[in-house]
Amino acid sequence: MVRVTRLQHKSVTWHVERLVRWAEDLATRGGKKAVDPKMGSWKMEVRKFGRSYSQLLDVMMEHAQMEERVLFPIFDRADRGLTKAAKEEHARDLPIMNGIKEIIKSIE
């Protein structure tokens, strides 16, 4: 279980970093020409970015739910309060992630 969780964390981190680089590239170009003709227009690329972000958000939500249902109860049995910080992070991050999704929708 630990290996699977680590692999998920590593994968999510890689995908977040990739989306950050992509967002920085989009912001740098500022709605101008697409660097890669295969990507289509800037607007099409923003739509693709939004879909990629939505997919990542779904994976992150499922991962967080798995942690809360499977891992956290095990950790809490071993040491009460051990998962308090992680639960607070999940509660803090969800509105931020949904806000980003809404911003992307407004750009599309």
Structural account:
The chain has helices at residues 2-29, 42-78, 84-107. With 108 residues, the protein is an all-alpha fold. It has one domain (2-29, 41-107). It holds the Pfam family Hemerythrin. This is Hemerythrin HHE cation-binding domain protein. It comes from Trifolium medium. Residues 3-108 form the Hemerythrin-like domain.
- Taking pLDDT < 50 over at least 5 consecutive residues as the criterion, the unreliable ranges are none
Question: How many runs of DSSP E, i.e. beta strands?
Answer: 0
Mind describing the biggest β-sheet? none
On the 0 to 100 scale, the average pLDDT is 84
Q: Which structural class fits the helix and strand makeup? A: mainly alpha
Order of H and E elements: HHH
| Alpha-carbon distance between the two ends | 39 Å
Number of domains: 1
Strand percentage lies at under 5%
| Rg for CA atoms | 17 Å
Number of helices: 3
Binned, the helix content reads: over 70%
| Shape category | elongated
Strands, helices and their partners?
Blueprint: H1 2-29, H2 42-78, H3 84-107
In brief:
The protein is mainly alpha-helical. The protein is 82% helix and 0% strand. The radius of gyration is 17 Å and the shape is elongated.
